[in-house]
Write a structure and sequence with these properties.
The chain is globular, with a radius of gyration of 25 Å. It has about 575 residues and is an alpha/beta fold. Helix 3 packs antiparallel against helix 5 and helix 10 packs antiparallel against helix 11. Helix content is about 25%, strand content about 20%.
């Protein structure tokens, strides 16, 4: 039945096919059922050899945005257009990544490179091929497929040719936005991709395949240069899959891939490291500076380039007043995930988290007015390690030594507000190595050592910036989140060099050097213990957090230098 179904499908047609070029499409002559094919403008699907994908299917190869809108509205339940013109899509049961279902193929050519463990869980080659076959069989049974070609990386010297094969227009538009878009000439000569993602996320994995832990599977085979997705429709799996690939390939070429945002101004380039919710995207979108990118970069021998062609911003609580550049980027061509809209006005309610806290928007980089294109820049003069400390004990800003930089980079600390579960009464610490633990392939110390070499070679300053709570831990009476206005003032002082000139005071226990003043920031804000009503409670909370730092770092201490281990905090 499957062969009969595939044989009955029409081939790809485009506006460049000789049979339709020059013809006038009118209401009297057009077969509207075939209209999507006529308007796909991707041309016949090319270079599908060895993929298993049936080239005679109805395939939209590199279709324009408008066609993807039409396809999503026609075929994907729950897809709508918001009043601002953005496509609103639903990702199904999964509204975030599934790190416990990520697998990496254990094979001879890459085995010795990989940091095996809970981040990179082994999968045998046979199981990968079973999942690949399952995904391709599913894709070949669909009424239509979408293929998107693009680059990972703006620097032509290091960029990777990537192909996405998927069954949802939502996924195709997402990756059209997130990959670096080739020119028409580059698409015409794209050739075979260097890495391919088969996204059959609407179809579950077989839980009885060896190595599977659920009906969801996100598997990478570096030797085959392929990724297979089953059982999750969350688009972010593709984006982070490409980051994982670059996290492996770039260090192998001697270049440092980083989970970071980046911008540049007249006073230099700044890199921001941080986990979700720490302000990495918000702080890099500065109207006074050119945006290089909001999430993934490579620091090369020549400077820094953005891996992506777009941005993937959190939408929860989004407002024009707080984040005007991001707010205005949500328009036609952007895709917004899992948000709630007013049924009559079709306006998005960014404060409604009834579907998920992880509402997101993916938009092309050029939707940000001050984005620099191509997204390539020079060597950074500052790196900022962001944390959102919900314990309320870390200083809003501190200057870091080389050893402290490596220590806090490897630790990758932030904290989340306590949830609603019974018994959870205090903030929850999160440690993610190199501020991107789920995406690391090599051991964290490899990335940290490469970063230290870069900082020293290019005389780059390093800072810890806390965007979390002051006056107490989250939920305590009198505590509040550090104002964005004050945080931006600190970042401005870092960028223009003013903070580097200010005398510092060493903080007990942590050894962090706190600037004694900062333009635009009240001095008492800079010293966290001064904002607590009970200094004894402050010290107890700080010591508790310091113990968690020490426990976490013990996992990496065997490969860390004495200089890095000396940054372990002690009790105050």
């Amino acid at each position: 039945r499957r062969n009969q179904k595939m044989a009955a499908r029409p081939p790809v047609v485009s506006t460049r096919d000789a049979s339709v070029v020059g013809q006038t499409l009118s209401a009297a002559t057009v077969n509207y059922e075939n209209l999507p094919q006529l308007l796909s403008s991707g041309g016949a699907a090319r270079n599908l050899e060895d993929t298993g994908i049936n080239p005679q299917q109805k395939i939209f190869h590199n279709p324009p945005v408008a066609v993807l809108y039409e396809e999503a509205l026609r075929n994907e339940k729950g897809t709508r257009i918001a009043a601002n013109g953005a496509m609103v899509a639903l990702s199904g049961q999964k509204t975030g990544r599934s790190p416990k279902d990520k697998r990496v193929v254990d094979e001879a050519t890459t085995r010795a490179d990989i940091w095996w463990g809970p981040v990179n869980i082994k999968l045998d080659e046979k199981s990968f091929l079973v999942n690949r076959e399952r995904a391709i069989d599913y894709l070949n049974l669909q009424e239509q497929l979408y293929i998107v070609d693009g680059y990972a990386g703006w620097d032509e010297k290091y960029r990777l040719k990537v192909r996405i094969v998927c069954s949802r227009a939502y996924h195709a538009l997402f990756m059209r936005n997130m990959l670096v878009r080739p020119t028409d000439e580059e698409l015409a000569n794209f050739g075979k991709p260097e890495f391919t993602i088969y996204n059959a996320g609407s179809f579950p994995a077989n839980r009885f395949v060896q190595g599977m832990s659920s009906s969801c599977s996100v598997a990478i085979d570096f030797a085959r240069a392929e990724m297979v997705i089953l059982g999750t429709q969350y688009a972010g799996e593709m984006k982070k899959g490409i980051l994982t690939v670059m996290m492996y390939l770039m260090p192998k070429k001697g270049q440092l891939c980083l989970h970071s945002s980046c911008n540049e101004g007249k006073d230099g380039v700044t890199l921001f490291f941080g986990l979700s919710g720490t302000g990495k995207t918000t702080l890099s979108a500065d109207p006074a500076r050119a945006l290089i990118g909001d999430d993934e970069h490579v620091w090369t021998d020549d400077g820094v380039f953005n891996v992506e062609g777009g941005c993937y911003a959190k939408c929860i609580g989004l407002s024009r007043k707080a984040e005007p550049e991001i707010y205005d980027a949500v328009r036609f061509g952007a895709i917004v995930e899992n948000v709630v809209m007013d049924e009559e006005k079709r306006e998005i309610d960014y404060n409604d988290d009834s579907l998920t806290q992880n509402t997101r928007c993916a938009y092309p980089l050029d939707f940000i007015p001050n984005a620099k294109l191509p997204a390539v820049t020079g060597h950074p003069s500052n790196v900022v390690l962001l944390t959102c400390d919900a314990f309320g004990v870390l200083p809003p800003v501190a200057k870091l030594t080389k050893g402290q930089t490596m220590y806090h980079f490897i630790s990758g600390y932030t904290a989340k507000v306590a949830g609603t579960e019974e018994g959870v009464t205090e903030p929850l610490p999160t440690f993610s190595a190199c501020f991107g633990g789920p995406f690391l392939v090599w051991h964290p110390t490899k990335y940290a050592e490469m970063l230290a070499e870069k900082l020293e070679k290019h005389t780059c300053n390093a800072w810890l910036l806390n965007t979390g709570w002051v006056g107490g831990a989250a939920g305590m009476e009198g505590s509040h989140r550090i104002s964005l206005k004050h945080t931006r003032a600190m970042v401005d002082a870092i960028n223009n060099g003013e903070l580097n000139k200010v005398p510092t005071k060493k903080m007990e226990g942590t050894g962090l050097e706190i600037p004694q003043e900062c333009p635009g920031v009240p001095s008492d804000v800079l010293f966290p213990w001064k904002n607590w009503k009970d200094e004894k409670a402050y010290r107890e909370t700080l010591n508790k957090l310091s113990a968690k730092f020490r426990d976490n770092f013990a996992k990496y201490a065997d490969k860390a230098s004495a200089e890095v281990k000396a940054a372990d905090p002690t009790d105050w």
